[in-house]
C-alpha cells in the first residue's frame, strides 16, 4: 500500500548544472519499494504547481544496521517542480506519496539482465541492478547521455559488477551516437541459446527503438514509460498508453497503475 508522507530532505547533491540527487527521509516508502516503482512528489508549499510530479525511486537509503531509512531521487531540471527539487534545502519537507505502480519483474540466473538507459532514464536502474546482482544475475548497463558530464554513477554500477556500454551524442565519452546502436550489435551477436531480459527507461523514441530491436531478435523487453501523470493513482487518465490486446485490437491502459513498467512488444509505438 502506498503511503503519503511529509519527507524531510536529508541531502541534496548536485551532479551537474541540471541534475541532482535528492535524499529524503521516508522509511515507510523505502521499506515497501521494488525496482521500477515511483513516488508522486510535491516540492515546496502552496498551490503552484498544484499537482505532484512522478519520480522513480533511485536509491534505497539504509542505516548502519541495514534498515531502510529513506529514498533518493535522480532529478533532471526541466520545469517548475524539477527546478524546486534541484534547489531544495536540507531540512526542507516535501510531500511524497508512494511507492506506486508496477515494478520490473526481477529475473534469476542464467538469464542475463540488460538495462538500457537514456539520460535521466538511469533512475530506476540503481535499485534494479542491486536486486539483480544480489541474485547473481549477470548484468550489462547500456547507458546513453548527451555528453560525458551527464553520465552519472558509473563507479556505483562498476562496483556492483555491472558491465557498462556507454554512448554520448557528442562523442565526449564512449561511442558517439545513440545507445540503441551498440545494443543492436549485441543483440545481433548473441547466440539464441543465451537467455536475456531487456529493461529500458528513457525518452520515448529510445524506448520504441529498444522494444522494436528486442522484438526483432526475439528477446523479452520490459519498458518503463514516462507519460505526464496528474495523479499517479488511476483517477485522471492523463497517462494512458495504447496497448495491443490478444485479438489484434488496441486498448488504452493507465500507465500509473498498469505500469510504469509495461511489456515493450505490446505497446503501440507509432
Ligand atoms: C513514472 C515516471 C517516473 C519518472 N521519473 C523521473 C526521475 O526519476 N527523474 C526525473 O527527473 N524525472 C522523472 N520523470 C519525469 C518527471 O516527472 C518530469 O520531468 C516532471 O513531471 C516535470 O515537472 P516540472 O514541473 O519540472 O515540469 P513542467 O513545468 O510541468 O513541464 C516542463 C516541460 O516538460 C514537459 N514534461 C513534463 N513532464 C514530462 C514527461 N513525463 N515527459 C516528457 N515531458 C514532460 C512539459 O510538457 C513541459 O514542456 C518521471 C516521469 C514518470 C511518468
Ligand atoms: S496519472 Fe492519473 S490516471 Fe494515471
Please describe what this structure looks like.
- The protein is of the alpha/beta class and 270 residues long.
- It is 20% helix and 35% strand.
- It is built from six helices and 16 strands.
- The chain has helices at residues 27-32, 80-87, 125-134, 154-160, 180-189, 204-216, and strands spanning 3-14, 19-25, 38-42, 53-56, 59-62, 68-76, 93-100, 112-118, 139-145, 163-168, 175-176, 196-201, 221-224, 240-244, 250-254, 261-263.
- The strands form three sheets. Strands 4-3-7-1-2-6-5 form a seven-stranded antiparallel β-sheet. A seven-stranded mixed β-sheet has the order 11-10-9-8-12-13-16, sandwiched between helices. A two-stranded antiparallel ribbon has the order 14-15.
- A hairpin with a 5-residue loop joins strand 14 and strand 15 (250-254).
- The radius of gyration is 18 Å and the shape is globular.
- It starts with a strand and ends in a 7-residue tail after the last strand.
- The site of FE2/S2 (inorganic) cluster has 12 residues, from loops.
